[in-house]
Structures are given as C-alpha cells and as structure tokens.
Amino acid sequence: MFFSKGKNLVGLDIGSSAVKIVELKELGKGRGYQLLNLALERLSPEAIVDGAIMDAGLVVDTVQRAFSARKIKGSDVAIALSGHSVIIKKISIPATSEEELAEVIPWEAEQYIPFDVQDVNLAYQVLKGASGGEGNMDVLLVAAKKDKINDYTSVVSQAGRNPVVVDVDVFALQNCYEMNYDTDPGVARALVNIGASTTNVAILKGTTSIFWRDISVGGNHYNDAIRKELNLSFEQAESLKRGEEVDGIPVENVNPIIASVNDFIGAEIQKTIDFFKNTTPGENIETLVIAGGSSRIPHLREALGERFGIPVEALNPFNRVQIGKGISSDMVDEIGSSVSIAVGLAARRAGDTR
Ligand SMILES: Nc1ncnc2c1ncn2[C@@H]1O[C@H](COP(=O)(O)OP(=O)(O)OP(=O)(O)O)[C@@H](O)[C@H]1O
Ligand SMILES: [Mg+2]
C-alpha cells in the first residue's frame, strides 16, 4: 500500500451494499486524470455482513456483472479492506536503519495489534526522523488479517481478475481527496465516508493523516429503523429512504425516522471526533468532508453541520477528473457519491504493495 510507479490499476471497491469500479487514465504531469470507466452493481445485503464475505459466489457474480456491464477490460485491480480486520497505528520506536526496521517491526507490532502476528500481513512506513539517526522515529504500522485479505483477493481471482494491490479504505479515501483538492498545511479536515455498514473517518492535516477510524454505522441503520417502524422489507425501506414511492406510504411517515437515524449517525461520528480531540489536544477540525452513498440521505449534511458547527462539504471524487466520452453525466451524478474509495484505488499503481 506504500506506493511506486507503474500503470494505473482498476479501482474495485467491494462494499457490503454495492460493488463499485473506477478506471482512470493519468493525463501526464500535473494534468490530472480522465475517467475511462465507472460501474456500480448492487449487492444483496446478506452477501457481506460486518465486512465478512458470507456468500462468495454472490460477490463473484456481482463483481463479474459490474465488469461486464461496462465492458471493463483492465485486469489488474486494487481493492481495499476496512473495519476490524485492519489495524492502523502510529508508533514511535528507537531510530534504526531500513534493514533493521524490517526485522524489528514484527516484534514491535506484537505490542500494538490485538492479533497474533502470524495471522496478519504487516506494512509500515517511516513518517519522520532520519533512519539510523538518534532518538525515536515515527512509523505508520498497518496490520491486516491474512484470512480477510485472502477472502477478498480470492473473490477477485474467481471473477477472473488479478488483485495486485490490497489497500485500506481510509487511505484510498485520503488519496481520492488529495487527487481532487488542494490541501492547506495548517488546516485539519475530517473526511467521513458513510457507507452501508461502515463509516470510514480519516483526519488530515494538510497532506498528513493524523487519525483513522472505521465506525460500524451506516445506511443500513435507516433501513432497519424504517423496516421496524413501518413493518416493511429491506428493499421497501431502501426505496423509501432514497425518496422513491412505495405503496403510497406518505413521506411524512418516513421523514421522522430518517431524522432520528441522522441524529444517531451524527452522535456516533461525534464520539469518534471527540476521541480524536481528547487524544490529540490542540487540533481543531475546520471542515467535515462527507462521502459515501449514505451522504445523500436527506438532511444528513445539515444535521452534521448543526451538530459540529463547522462547514460540511460533499467530496466530489471527480473534482479534478475529466469525464471521458461515453460516460453520462447522469451516471456520474447518480453514483459519484459512492465511488470515492474506488477513485482513490484507481489512482494506485502496479508495484504498490503491502
Ligand atoms: N440516493 C441515496 N439516498 C440515500 N441513501 C443512499 C442513496 N444511494 C445510496 N444510498 C445508501 O448508501 C449506502 C451505500 O453506500 P456505499 O456504496 O458507499 O456503501 P458500501 O461501500 O456498499 O458499504 P460499506 O462500505 O459500509 O460496506 C447504502 O446504505 C445505500 O442504501
Ligand atoms: Mg464502502
């Protein structure tokens, strides 16, 4: 996941509610990207539960459908993991050389990760402080469960593609933001990607990430609440929350349910932001940047603005991406909010390894 040169990969985001694919072409130095392909295929909610693949066949079919719906040919893909199977920690260790670091990392990791080191893939990056110098150096340590990596990469292989890079949602989210916006070194922003079952939070100061967290909340909470209150199916609840007509059920019945879940989601995000503030004194978050399919929930943006008292902006994953021929602006508008992770992944390159 720490990155090198090479060809852009196909960004494949296997979310629990939908598979998203983005293919980009880099236009040359400083000229940004062009969007070559974009696809979204919905996935049944029982296929992936709490980030665990429960029905691999269904996920493979959906990935294949997403590729074939838009005739996407690229075969080398970047995927990402999130949730409990990934641990990201900034650790401080006595400064050592690059070679020594490779040896000490597994030992250091043992203290910081709640899994057996044998069961994880480790990646790391020195954040600051010269290798071999005096004192301590900060290292970003990432540990991902091998069985989870294996579950996701084998879905990709079974769908006939090569999983070349395994990234992490919060890093792909940050990458998407940095591709599309200028960053001001003194300003801290919270990027909040609200999916179906998970909300990824990445806090950046300039281009430095200073905090990462996946929270187990998302759009499914709306479906559950609507389902229970109005005695409906998941699919009916899904349509209602998107503002679609269902069996003449008046919106007045749905709006208060959505508003109360907006409150709940806001409170969960606030817990994370408060935790960040308590553990990182002196940092002030100036803007909230929201993304993810659930960022389109009616009035969620306003509710977050009121709660946090700071501007809430929608992340446009194509802010600096030219939309290629054959991709309708309707499609971009319709699914743009859901593809930030896929866009961040599509800018990764072969040779970026973990
Ligand atoms: N127009 C819309 N209005 C309201 N909610 C929407 C809309 N479009 C999508 N959603 C919701 O957004 C969620 C999907 O977003 P996204 O694609 O970012 O999640 P995911 O990657 O599948 O999920 P996760 O990352 O949590 O596994 C679903 O809960 C879906 O119902
Ligand atoms: Mg997602």
Biggest sheet statistics: 6 strands, mixed
Distance between the termini: 5 Å
**Strands of the largest sheet, in order across it?**
10-6-1-2-3-16
Give the name of the CATH architecture of the largest domain.
2-Layer Sandwich
Q: Which stretches of 5+ consecutive residues score pLDDT under 50?
A: none
The run of helices and strands is EEEEEHEEHEEHEHEEEHHHEHEEHH
What is the count of helical runs?
Answer: 10
Q: What does this protein structure show overall?
A:
With 354 residues, this protein is α/β, with parallel strands linked by helices. It has 3 domains: 1-85 and 147-181 and 319-354, ATPase, nucleotide binding domain (Nucleotidyltransferase, domain 5), CATH 3.30.420; 86-144, Dna Ligase, domain 1 (2-Layer Sandwich); 183-315, ATPase, nucleotide binding domain (Nucleotidyltransferase, domain 5), CATH 3.30.420. Helices cover 35% and strands 29% of the residues. The chain has helices at 56-69, 98-112, 146-158, 169-180, 220-230, 234-241, 251-279, 300-308, 329-335, 340-346, and strands spanning 10-14, 18-26, 33-42, 48-49, 52-53, 76-81, 86-94, 120-128, 136-145, 162-168, 188-194, 199-205, 208-215, 285-291, 312-314, 321-323. Strands 10-6-1-2-3-16 form a 6-stranded mixed beta sheet, with helices on both faces. Strand 1 and strand 2 (18-26) form a beta hairpin. Helix 1 (56-69) crosses helix 3, helix 4 crosses helix 10 (340-346) and helix 5 (220-230) runs antiparallel to helix 7. The longest helix is centred in the C-terminal third of the chain and has 29 residues, at 251-279. The chain starts with 9 loop residues before the first strand and ends in an 8-residue tail after the last helix. The relative contact order is 0.18. The mean pLDDT is 93. Residues 13, 15, 195, 341 line the site of magnesium ion.
